[in-house]
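Figure 6 in text form: structure in, sequence out.
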C-alpha cells in the first residue's frame, strides 16, 4: 500500500470509529502515531521521522483528488473533513439491502446520519425525474429522497441511484407480489383497466414475481404493453398502502419501491420518445444536407427547420448534433470517403457537404464562375482597349492565372476548396456514372495526379478573352493606328472642331443603328433583338435593373421584410463589440465599416456586372472576418452576420 493510501485508510478508520466525518487534526495525528507504534510489517516506516510533515503532504494529495478537505487557521491545519464518510456508510447499508429483501432502504434514523447541509433533498414527485435526466449525475453526490405523507425518506448516493436502485425496487415489488394474496388482488384490479388479455397480464405478474432482472429490461425499454402495466401496478400498490394507518415497516418499503418504479417507468418512456424524435430530426437533417444551398456551416445546420417551420435543434442537443456530424464525417471501415464531407476554406470557414452533391455542386460553381469572371474580364479589358491601353494581365498567362486564382480565393473560397484533386478523384471514382461525373472528371489530370490549370477548368483562356474583347469593340477602337486616322477624318468633316471620345462613341452608335435599320428594311421590317443587346445604354439600364432586384432579394433574405437595416446593424454590433467606452466603441465599428467599404470598392465593377447571390455575400463577409485586423474580436459569428448586412447596405447605396 502506498503512503497516500495508508493515510487514507487511517482517516477512514478513525471517522468510522468516531461516527463523524470531521476529525480534529491533532486527534488524527495521535491516532496515526498509534498505528506507527503497533506496525510490525514496515508499512509505516516512511512516517517514523518528521511524522507530521510526511502525513500532511499525503493529506494534501488526498485533497487534490477530492477525497478529503482540510480546514486551516493561522497557517495551521485545524481539522480534516472526510468527504467519503457518508458514501462508505451508505455503501455498507445498501450491501445489507442487497443481501436481504426484508431489509428496508436506509434512512436518517437507521443509518445514524445527520443529513442537514450535506445531502441534497429530492422530492420524489417534483425532482426525481429531473435528477434521473442529469447526464452529469455525480456518483459521489448524496441525496435524500422524500416521499408524500408518512412514508420514510431514502438516503442514497449518486452511484447507487444510477446503478442499483431500480433493481432493488423491483426486488421489493417481487416480495410484495409473493406476500399473502397480493398477486391475485393486482390481477383483479388490472384486468378491467388494461387493454390486454388476462393471460398476458397473468404472465407479466408471474415474471415480476420470479425474475426482477427481466423486469428491469422491460422498464428501460418500454412498449405499449409494458409501460401501462407498470404504471398501473405502481398506482394500485400506492393506493392500497398509502392511507393505511397501521403501516408495517415492509409496507413503507413497498410504497417507496412503487413510487420509484412509477417514475423510472415514466423516465424511460419519455427518454425513448425523445430518442425517436431525435433520430427522426437527425434523419431530416441528413435529407436537408442534400438540398440547396448544399454547403452549410455549423450555424446553418443548427438553424435547420422542419416542415412546420420549427427548429430541428429543439429535438436534439448541440452535443447530439456534434456526435451525429462526427459519425457522418468519419469514413466507414470499407469506405474511403465519409457520407458528409467537412471542408475548411481559405478564409477559415468550415462547411459540411453531403458527398452526393459534391460533383453537381462543383460543376455548377465552375460554370457560374466561368460566366461571372468572363463578364468581368471582358468589361475591364474593353475599357482599357477603348483608351488604347494594354495591361500586363492581358499579355501574360502567368499573371492572368494568378489574378484569376486570387479573385476566386477572395470571392468564392468554397469553389477554391472544392477544386481539390484528392476529393474530386475519390468522389468521381465512387460514382462514375453519376450526372456530371464525366464533366468533373475532365478537371482531373489523372496521369499527373493533379488538376488542370484553373483557366482551363473555367474555360477562360487569356488569349481567347482578349480576342473576344477586341471583337466586341468597333474595329477602329481596338487598333490604335486606325483609330487615329478615323479621329483625324472626323475632325476634318466636323469643321475642325475637337471631337472627344463621347462624340466618337455617339458617331459609332448612330452608324451602327443606321446599319441595323437597313438590315431590318431588307428583311421585311422585322425588329432585330440584337439592337437592344448591342446598345450600351440599354445594356447599362438592364444591368442596373438586375442589380437592383438582386440587392432587394438579398436584403429580404438576410435582413427580412419590414426590418430596418440600421437597427439590425446596431443590434448585431452590440453583440460583437466588447468595448464599454462609447468613443472607442464607435471607433471600432467605424474601423470595421471602413474595412468593408475598401474591400467592396475593389469588387464594385464586377458586382455591377454580375450581381452577388447570398452565398457570395457570405463568402465576402467570411473573408473580411478572417482579416488579421479583426482578429481581436472574439464573437466571429455575430461579426460575420453584421458584415453580411453591412455589405447589403453598401450595395443598396449603389442602386440608383
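Output sequence:
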Amino acid at each position: 500500500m502506498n503512503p497516500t493510501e495508508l493515510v487514507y485508510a487511517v482517516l477512514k478508520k478513525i471517522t468510522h470509529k468516531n461516527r463523524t466525518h470531521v476529525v480534529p487534526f491533532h486527534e488524527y495525528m495521535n491516532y496515526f502515531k498509534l498505528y506507527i507504534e503497533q506496525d510490525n510489517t514496515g508499512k509505516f516506516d516512511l512516517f517514523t521521522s518528521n511524522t507530521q510533515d510526511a502525513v500532511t503532504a499525503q493529506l494534501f494529495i488526498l485533497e487534490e483528488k477530492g477525497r478529503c478537505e482540510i480546514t486551516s487557521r493561522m497557517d495551521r491545519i485545524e481539522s480534516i473533513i472526510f468527504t467519503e464518510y457518508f458514501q462508505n456508510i451508505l455503501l455498507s447499508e445498501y450491501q445489507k439491502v442487497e443481501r436481504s429483501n426484508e431489509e428496508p432502504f436506509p434512512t436518517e434514523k437507521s443509518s445514524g446520519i445527520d443529513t442537514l447541509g450535506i445531502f441534497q433533498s429530492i422530492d420524489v414527485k417534483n425532482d426525481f425525474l429531473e435528477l434521473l435526466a442529469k447526464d452529469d449525475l455525480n456518483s459521489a453526490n448524496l441525496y435524500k429522497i422524500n416521499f408524500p405523507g408518512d412514508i420514510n425518506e431514502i438516503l442514497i448516493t449518486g452511484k447507487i441511484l444510477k446503478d442499483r436502485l431500480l433493481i432493488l425496487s423491483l426486488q421489493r415489488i417481487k416480495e410484495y407480489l409473493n406476500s399473502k394474496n397480493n398477486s391475485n388482488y393486482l390481477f383483479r384490479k388490472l384486468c378491467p383497466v388494461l387493454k390486454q388479455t388476462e393471460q398476458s397480464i397473468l404472465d407479466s405478474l408471474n415474471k415480476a414475481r420470479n425474475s426482477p432482472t427481466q423486469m428491469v429490461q422491460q422498464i428501460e425499454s418500454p412498449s405499449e404493453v409494458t409501460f401501462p402495466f407498470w404504471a398501473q401496478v405502481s398506482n394500485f400498490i400506492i393506493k392500497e398502502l398509502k392511507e393505511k394507518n397501521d403501516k408495517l415497516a415492509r409496507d413503507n418499503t413497498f410504497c417507496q419501491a412503487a413510487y420509484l418504479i412509477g417514475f423510472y417507468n415514466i423516465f424511460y418512456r419519455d427518454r425513448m420518445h425523445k430518442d425517436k424524435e431525435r433520430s427522426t430530426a437527425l434523419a431530416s437533417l441528413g435529407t436537408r444536407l442534400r438540398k440547396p444551398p448544399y454547403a452549410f456551416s455549423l450555424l446553418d445546420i443548427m438553424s435547420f427547420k422542419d416542415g412546420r417551420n420549427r427548429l430541428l435543434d429543439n429535438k436534439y442537443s448541440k452535443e447530439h448534433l456534434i456526435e451525429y456530424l462526427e459519425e457522418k464525417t468519419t469514413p466507414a471501415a470499407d469506405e474511403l470517403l465519409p457520407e458528409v464531407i467537412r471542408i475548411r476554406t481559405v478564409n477559415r470557414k468550415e462547411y459540411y457537404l453531403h458527398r452526393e452533391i459534391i460533383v453537381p455542386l462543383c460543376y455548377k460553381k465552375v460554370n457560374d464562375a466561368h460566366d461571372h469572371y468572363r463578364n468581368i474580364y471582358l468589361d475591364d479589358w474593353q475599357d482599357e482597349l477603348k483608351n488604347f491601353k494594354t495591361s500586363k494581365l492581358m499579355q501574360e498567362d502567368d499573371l492572368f492565372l494568378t489574378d484569376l486564382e486570387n479573385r476566386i480565393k477572395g470571392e468564392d473560397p468554397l469553389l477554391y476548396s472544392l477544386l481539390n484533386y484528392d476529393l474530386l478523384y475519390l468522389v468521381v471514382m465512387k460514382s462514375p456514372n453519376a450526372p456530371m461525373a464525366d464533366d468533373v472528371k475532365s478537371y482531373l489530370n489523372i496521369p499527373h495526379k493533379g488538376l488542370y490549370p484553373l483557366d482551363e477548368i473555367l474555360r477562360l483562356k487569356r488569349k481567347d478573352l482578349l480576342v473576344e474583347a477586341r471583337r466586341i469593340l468597333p474595329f477602329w477602337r481596338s487598333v490604335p493606328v486606325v483609330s487615329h486616322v478615323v479621329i483625324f477624318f472626323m475632325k476634318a468633316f466636323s469643321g475642325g472642331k475637337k471631337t472627344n471620345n463621347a462624340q466618337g462613341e455617339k458617331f459609332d452608335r448612330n452608324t451602327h443603328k443606321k446599319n441595323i435599320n437597313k438590315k431590318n428594311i431588307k428583311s421585311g421590317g422585322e425588329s432585330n433583338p440584337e439592337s437592344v443587346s448591342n446598345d450600351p445604354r440599354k445594356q447599362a439600364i438592364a444591368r442596373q435593373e438586375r442589380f437592383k432586384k438582386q440587392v432587394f432579394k438579398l436584403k429580404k433574405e438576410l435582413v427580412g421584410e419590414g426590418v430596418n437595416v440600421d437597427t439590425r446593424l446596431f443590434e448585431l454590433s452590440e453583440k460583437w463589440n466588447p468595448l464599454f467606452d462609447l468613443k472607442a466603441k464607435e471607433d471600432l465599428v467605424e474601423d470595421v465599416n471602413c474595412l468593408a467599404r475598401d474591400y467592396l470598392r475593389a469588387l464594385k465593377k464586377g458586382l455591377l456586372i454580375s450581381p452577388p447571390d447570398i452565398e457570395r455575400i457570405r463568402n465576402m463577409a467570411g473573408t473580411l472576418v478572417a482579416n488579421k485586423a479583426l482578429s481581436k474580436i472574439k464573437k466571429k459569428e455575430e461579426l460575420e452576420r453584421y458584415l453580411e448586412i453591412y455589405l447589403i447596405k453598401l450595395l443598396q447605396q449603389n442602386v440608383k
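Caption detail: DSSP finds 32 helices and ten strands in the chain.
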